[in-house]
Amino acid sequence: MSQYPRQLQLPQLLTKKSHFLFGPRATGKSTLIRTQLTDQALIINLLHTDYYLRLSANPSELENMIRFAQAQKPDLSWIVIDEVQKIPALLDEVHRLIEEKQYRFLLTGSSARKLKSGQSNLLAGRAWRTDLFPLTSREIPRFSLKTYLHHGGLPAVVQSQDPVEELHAYTALYLREEIQGEGLIRKLAPFSRFLSQAAHCNGHILNYAKIGADAQVPPATIREYFEILQDTLVGFLLPPWLSAKKRKSSATSKFFFFDIGVVNTLRGITRLEKNTTEWGMAFEHFIAMELRAALGYFRIKAPLSFWRSATHDEVDFIIGDHIAIEVKSKNKTSYRDAKGLQKIQEEGILKTYLLVSDDPICRIENGITFIHWPIFLDQLWKNVFGLVE
Asked: Which tops the pLDDT comparison, 307 or 388?
């Protein structure tokens, strides 16, 4: 797999503390580890049968493996355990070695489901969490918005000569291995129907009853299915911003899949046209992914949310109580497009108001900055509009 200039720098993280590194399958965790840590780390991949069988039978073997590696490589700095959710019991041994030997670990996984359901030892703060996301605009040479909105940012898809086939193979693999193979659901057919409906609801406020009716699945099961998507890192909830005082806010979350290409595949979309609802939703999803990745990689703890009032005024994204962001895919915007931002301005809480669009004319009107998306992304990845310390 080709190497991309990833924003996440593992050596910088590991000089501070042990880390859990989570990310969906095929986002490039193993490649990132090989390129950034190989010279200074013992890498134990639990997808390799030999490692899996030995350590699942006897987790205490881990210390012997580390001692041998140190004898061969005296400058060994870190121990990487890839796909740690395969042997949750191994975390007790990791905990002991951090406490007694002060070893520094990187523990990776593509699912938190087994760790949570098995009451696993999550190291009680002795390891911080970091997430790896699909490739961002900053990490793809000669970035093309049109290509990204069609195919997303999975590394294998970005470099593929046939990205559509690659995405179909990925979604089939996810269904077979992550869901059915690990016994997370009892019947695949209802979950397949749910996935299709969930993809059509991408970026919208969740309505479990409606999705359940469309997928012919009880609402309680729909709620459980969405939890599975979150635990396997294939999707995330965008919570509502509830700090408004003058207008009652919606208290229901939105849901986004982790990758635009995966959504398009699940929806059967092979072509997006500009100035359509589908293009606009994909563009909003793209900005969501860039925001989420930037906040994660810069380790900014301010939450990402959205705002919708009881009268349906809406702002697409809010960062903490600092920045409000409205997204429009049109190439010519006016002050009327900033209605939601105007309403939230009246709350007097946030500091910055941005309307991001494909309009190349940047300007400020009544405290609202109208900004072209490439310039917005440049400022986002420089310092997240002043939030980077």
From this structure: 307
Residue from 312, 386, 323 nearest 355 by CA: 323
pLDDT of residue 63 exceeding 90, the answer is: yes
Q: How far apart are CA 80 and CA 379, in angstroms?
A: 33
Q: Is 16 strand, coil or helix?
A: coil
CA distances from 337 to 134, 169, 179, 247, 273 (A): 30, 39, 41, 20, 21
Q: Which pairing describes strands 352-357 and 368-372: parallel, antiparallel, or unpaired?
A: parallel
Closest CA to 10 of 172, 91, 128: 128
Percent of the chain with pLDDT over 90: 78
Using the predicted structure, report yes or no on whether residue 113 has a pLDDT greater than 60: yes
Asked if the model's pLDDT at residue 389 lies above 80, the reply is: no
4 part of a folded domain = no
Mean pLDDT taken over the chain: 92
Number of Cβ within a 10 Å radius of residue 253: 16
- Edge to edge, the sheet with strand 78-82 lists 41-45, 78-82, 105-109, 18-22, 127-131
Instruction: For residue 2, name the pLDDT band (cuts at 50, 70, 90).
Output: low
Last residue of a domain, one of 69, 100, 131: 131
**CA 115 to each of CA 111, 209, 236, 289: distance values in angstroms, whole numbers, following the listed order:** 8, 29, 18, 25
Rounded-to-integer distance, Cα 285 and Cα 293, Å: 12
What does the pLDDT average to over 127-136?
95
How far, in Å, CA of 21 to CA of 233, rounded?
12
pLDDT at 182 (0 to 100): 61
Dihedral sign of CA atoms 126, 302, 282, 202 in order: positive
Domain that holds residue 220: 145-383
Global model pTM greater than 0.90: yes
Please report whether residue 20 resides in a domain. yes
- Residue 167 included in any domain: yes
- The 3-state DSSP class for residue 362 equals coil
How deeply is 18 buried, as exposed, middle or buried, from its count of CB atoms within 10 A (0-12, 13-18, 19+)?
buried
CA distance 107 to 126: 12
